[in-house]
Each structure stands twice: as C-alpha cells, then as structure tokens.
Amino acid sequence: MSEAEQLSSLIGDIYDAALDQSLWVDVLRRAMKFVGAQGSSLFSRDAVSKSADIHHAFGVAPDYLQLYVDTYARLDPSTMTMFFSEVGQVASIVDQMVYDEFVKSRFYQEWARPQGWVDCVQALLDKSVTSFALVNFVRNKANGLVDDTMRQRTRLIVPHLRRAALIGNVIDVKTAEAATFADAADGISAGMFFVDASAHIVHANASGHAMLAQGSLLRVVDGKLVPNDASAEQALGEVYAMADQGDAAVGIKGIAVPLMALDGERHVAHVLPLTSGARRRAGTSYAAAAALFVQKAALDTPSPQEVIRKLYKLTPSELRVLLAIMQVGSTPEVAEALGISEATVKTHLHRVFAKTGTKRQADLVKLVAGYASPFVG
Predict the structure, then answer these.
(1) CATH for 115
(2) How far apart are CA 283 and CA 176, in angstroms?
C-alpha cells in the first residue's frame, strides 16, 4: 500500500479502538510500523508521585514494562518533561534535553540500553493538573535516532490517537456490540448523539435527552442539534460534514471542542466518525455520520510546577532538578535519583538560582511552596 493508503487504513483502526479497547495493541503495532519505530506504548503518568500506568504496549518485553512501572518510571527524564508540553505536541529526546545527558542517566544505562533502545518520539494526548497521558514510539540502535520522517508521520496520527483515547475514556463498548451501540450507550453518563452530516439528530442516549430537556447547553432546531455556544456550532458542523467523507478527513478538528452552557457551566465535546471500519455498523443503522459525546469539563487549572516553569523560563532539565531538590534534598541524592552527575546537578541548580533570584536551596523551597495550591491540605 502507498503511504496514503496505509495512513487511511490505520486511522480507521484507531477509531475502531475507541469502541473496542482490545484493539489497541494491534493499533500500536501498526502505528509503530507506520512511523518507523520498534516499540510503542500508551500510558499515563502521575506528575506528583511520578508513577506510571501502562494501558497498552507492543514490542517491549513484559518484564521490562513491569520494571518501568515498579522502578524506572520515577527515573525517566524524557517522559516526565512531557507534562509541560502542549497537548498534541510531538517530541523526541533531543527536543527535551541534551542527548549526552540522557545517555548518562541511570534510566538509560539500566533500562533503555539493555533493550537496545536509543531514542523515542512521544506525544501528550491529554493532561490534568496532576496527571497526563502519552503515546510513545521507541527506536532501537539498529535503526538510529528519531528522524524528521518519523516525527512527521507521528504528527499525522497523533490527533486521531488523541480523539480515540479520549472517547475511549468515556465509553467502553465491545466491537461485537456495535450493532446495539445506541442501546448500550444509555448506560454512558456522557450525553451521546448520533448525527448526520447536516447535524440532524438520528439518535440520542438517555443523558443526551436530559441535556436537551434542560436546554442550557444544547437545543433542537428543525431537527438539528444546535449548541447554545455559537462558536462551537460552527466547529462541530464542520466536523460532521468531514466525518461523512471518512476518517482521515476529520483530522485535528472536533477534538475536545469546548461548550459553554447558558448558566456558565463548561462542557467538552468529542466527535467520533461512524462512516467506516467496525463503527459503520453503528452508524448505518441510524444513517449517522458521527457520534458526538458531551460531558462536563474538568477544571483547567495549571499546576504549580507549570506556573513556575513558564514564569521563570526554566528548561526541562532545570525544572527537573528543581523538583528533585524539593522531593529528595541534597545534591548527591538528586544526582543519584536522576541518574546524572553531581556536577550536572550543580550546573542546573546555579542556573535556577540565577533565573529565580534565589541563592540557597532553602529559598527555592519557599519559592515553590508559595505557588502551591491553597486547596491542597
């Protein structure tokens, strides 16, 4: 198949995985081959505890996955810096830190190197104040470092991976149940609407009908689903029309579209195309081009770490050392925890002092504490 045909087929499988979680491993396998990687994973991280939860993976030995969860997630210098990236941004090791510093880290020496991994490209799929979800594609020594082709191909599929992962968090319906998807969807707390290319409602679940009855967020005009938020109406209308043309046409539009209710309550909408793949069974039963999922939006409050990073213009390495100082303490202990030399820690620390206008570690502790959330007990 040509690259375009490969991409189209892969995108269809990605969206099928939104309805059937068991398809994710094969999706990662195909995505890995498409971008030119030798391993891939879909996982989430907690920015406070540094813990990891691997949801799906392909090409990485199970025992090393367990080692990552048990020990090396907390020492992974590349993944944790992704927390401070923009959602959807694609980055390799060299985009986040000096590669020689990565190679010297304990994480590389003890976890990546024994497997032959030398680089990775990853993208943030979603994040909250304290956690984030990523997709990761790793390269081995035989294939070399991440190149521009790998970055570009990853950028092509990340919006679709993000949409499928977000919708998958709202629903979990097996492919075998796709023909009765609408009936199963009545158990979903989010509002769900099947619409055609012109936004006409062809089916809604119980939560969707409740939203329409309330009238603050959505209403029906001549059979069409209309958000009370005018800006969202145009954005969603474009996605419905694109969805009728196939999966690839949707692109980055329709991912987490913000909706504002008349009472000021914020919601978010996700659009899933229904015109191809296993999802066609659900769509054709109702002449629907897309499924719209609407749920309340989480509070979008930046973390103290993110505020500090932006305010003082800290690099990922400088921020990593600053946070380690808060959690671990002395320079030798930070060096051991991060897997870098004490000299490197001191270099980053001196730069942090200069940027923040502080002179001692105690001053840094006070500075970070000053940005801590007042809601944290």
Answers:
(1) 3.30.450.80
(2) 14
Q: Does residue 185 contact residue 168 with C-beta atoms inside 8 Å? A: no
| Whether the Cβ atoms of residue 194 and residue 182 lie closer than 8 Å to each other | yes
Please give the pLDDT value at position 317. 83
- Domain match, 267 and 289 both: yes
Domain housing 283: 178-296
> Phi and psi dihedrals of 85, rounded to 5?
-90, 165
Indicate the number of domains in the chain. 3
Q: Which two tokens stand for residue 191?
A: 């509002």
Contact indicator for 184, 19 with CB cutoff of 8 Å: no
Query: 180: which strand partners?
Result: none
Cβ 127 vs Cβ 160: under 8 Å:
no
What are 173-192's pLDDT values in tens digits? 443 344 445 555 566 678 88
**Mean pLDDT to the nearest integer, 255-259:** 80
Which of 296, 326, 343 lies at the terminal end of a domain, its last residue? 296
Torsion of CA 28, 32, 33, 36, to 10 degrees: 170
Residue 361 falls inside a structural domain:
yes
- For the entire predicted model, the pTM comes to 0.70
